[in-house]
Amino acid sequence: MDHWYVLYTKPNAEYAASHFLSQKGYETFLPVVKSPHPRRGYETVPLFPSYLFIRFDPNRLVIKDIYQTPGVRTLVKFDNRLAIVPDIVIEFIRKRVEAINEVGGLPNHNFKPGDLVYIRSGPLAGLEAIFEGPLGPRERVWVLVYILGALNRAEVPVEDLEPIVKAYSGLRPKKKLPRRTRGRGRRIRNAPDFTPQPK
User: Fold this and answer.
1) Which CATH architecture has domain 3-102?
2) Of 21, 154, 157, 162, which has the fewest Cβ atoms less than 10 A away?
3) Cα angle at 65 between 64 and 68, to 5 degrees?
């Protein structure tokens, strides 16, 4: 009986593996979404990097035929049994992919672990946090928020975040103070002195 199974591919080989398997006559499903940073040569990225789905009846084919396909590493197993993915799950993923693409694809962010961010909207609006991950473009990301004397992990939409520097840019002086030295302590002649004076 045909079922959906999970296929693990070599890095960046999802598109190629899906193409070659389709040429062999297999039904495949590679969930891809629009992205600000698409895969080279494409306008999309795989929703699950290094994974795709394939439908077949293991009793009617030699699994080795799948393993010999360029880009394929292995079929995912649990307790040495092929992991079956129910049709309802595949349908849910299809709808999820459609919903993401309808709003323009995955949101863009360039945050790195450890970056200080400002939560501008949502239940945690107004708080500062530490970006934790993931690195790739996702709808929701993890941040560490200091609440009640401890760091707490929270999951927030990435569009609710902005860099601390940007968030507080309006509070900073618009003009830089003039330099008083040329480096290594060498003073600039007639430079104003901003050293606080004792009262």
Assistant:
1) 2-Layer Sandwich (3.30)
2) 157
3) 85
pLDDT digits (tens, 9 = 90+) for 127-176: 888 888 765 555 677 788 876 666 688 888 887 888 876 555 544 444 44
- Cα torsion at 173, 178, 184, 186 (round to 10°)? -160
pLDDT at 70: 96
User: Could you tell me where in the chain the CATH 3.30.70.940 domains are found?
Assistant: 3-102
Query: Which of 138, 180, 176, 174 shows the shortest CA–CA distance to 155?
Result: 138
Task: Specify the domain boundaries for CATH 2.30.30.30 within the chain.
Answer: 116-171
pLDDT at site 171: 43
In this structure, what token pair is assigned to residue 8? 């693990």
Q: What is the pLDDT of residue 132?
A: 80
- Cβ-proximal residues to 55 (8 Å cutoff; 6+ apart), any chain: 2, 3, 4, 5, 26, 27, 28, 29
Burial per residue of 92-116, b for 16 or more beta-carbon CB atoms within 10 angstroms, e otherwise = ebeeebeebeeeebbbebebeeebe
CA angle 80, 12, 61 (to 5 degrees): 40
Kindly report the average pLDDT of the chain as a whole number: 79
Residues 49, 146: Cα–Cα separation, whole Å: 32
